[in-house]
């Protein structure tokens, strides 16, 4: 065992010495692998960061959350022209499901107010505010965190009271550093009292942050917009109790709605029962495809780097043919010569990979500074992948040159050198 360790150590020292003696050639060889590893790890880091940002913006809703609306999350087999004829879900259907559904933890009716709204306090106006018009139960479905005040209650929601809960950014725009609780603002041309302010969440690359949103009772918005199709995009949001079989729960929801709407056996549903888990699976599928496409493209860069290392190793073998002959004549075994050149190729490739990882880390830090709250992630797993891939590329690229060096006849090698 000690003999093998000694051979490995000597081979390693020979490889390091060879790389030091040919610094320019070493640098040029490193460049190809560095670019290849940089490309691969940059793609993995970018896709991981993208996935983290999207899932982070959706994390407020549990994966078991069910959303009923006339749209489907993801692709559908039903033609678009037919989907466009589907009716919106109604407040009355929400009330019916609330009374009739078993194993229901919370259910809320929600409207998406189109185009954003203008909020005005005294002389200050904030435009384009994303308004969430929901019933009071929405607080029990989404993971809201209040910095000040409270969410509206059932009497306020049912009676369409003029109350509003503001996102952190909206509150700062309207009130600055002063406390906005209890202050009266104007929304939809009506008065509304601020009763709550959400904790700061931070922006994501694709939006979804609550900082730029505000929440009012659904009935308050219904008085302004009504329920005209294609205007407010109503939806019913449900959260089943823990431990409930989600597929069975969704089947019950589907059957209840078919009964309400009088859909006959054999007729298709004119609504969609969506689950947040489906969104998560869809995101996983998309990011997986992005990973594959990116890795294929980056693989070409790494392939060029591998050819570069192989070429340099063949040159190295030719240059040191005389030295190989002398080593063999003094008793060096084939495996010593083989390991010597393999070590050189692997070390060369790993150093290039480490430089590539360093550059990815540097770019990630710089990019994060220019993208606000979006953070580029260089995970330890991706770093391990980069190091392992570079080592494998070095091993494969150096294998044929190393084998050819180990099989040289010592007499012919010395004669060729002279």
TrEMBL record:
One of its GO terms (cellular component) is plasma membrane. The keyword Transcription regulation does not apply. It is found in: Cell membrane. Residues 26-255 form the MacB-like periplasmic core domain. The keyword Transcription regulation does not apply. The chain crosses the membrane at residues 27-47, 292-315, 336-363, 383-405. Residues 296-410 form the ABC3 transporter permease C-terminal domain. Keywords: Cell membrane, Membrane, Transmembrane, Transmembrane helix. Belongs to the ABC-4 integral membrane protein family. This is Putative ABC transport system permease protein. It comes from Christiangramia echinicola.
